Amino acid sequence: MQKIEHLGIAVDDLEAANELFSKLLGKEHYKVEEVDSEKVATSFFQIGETKIELLEATGEESAIHKFIEKRGKGIHHIAFGVDDIYAEMKRLESEGFILLNETPKEGADNKLVCFLHPKTTGGVLVEICQEKN
Ligand code: ZN
Which of 39, 50, 77, 113 could be disulfide-bonded to 62 (CB atoms 3.0-4.6 Å)? Predict the structure, then answer.
């Protein structure tokens, strides 16, 4: 793993959260993007080398909707940047981590992503992501 690429934060109102975080961080978000397949609307703030990804559910079947129902809004996942997501998925699986998707999925912000089951990562939802070429 190369670095913490971003932190994902579940929000219930993306516009209000954008305002709050721009006040908090002293800068505006640099992009808003909907990921239809995941039923989420996202926005991104750049903080040094790392980003903050705000996630709002756009449908009831969204994982973000379920997360907020169960645990409330707040930190949702940590995403680590990797150079080769296929190699990293293989390595993690061989170490006993459970992958939530068998093949990389299209994520927001031009990424291929894979999530690890929190029951194998000490309760933390972990994403690994690779920049798409
Ligand atoms: Zn993410």
Answer: 39
Residues 82-95: pLDDT tens digits?
A: 999 999 999 999 99
Q: How far is the CA of 94 from the centre of ligand 1 (A)?
A: 23
Rounded Cα distance between 133 and 99, Å, is 23
Phi, psi of 16 (to 5 degrees): -65, -40
Region at 86 (left for phi over 0; alpha for psi -120 to 50; beta for the rest): alpha
**CA 55 to ligand 1 center in whole angstroms:** 8
Residue 54 has which token pair? 């705000």
Can you say how many angstroms the Cα of residue 127 is from the centroid of all Cα atoms in its chain? 6
Nearest to 6 by CA among 94, 92, 110, 133: 110
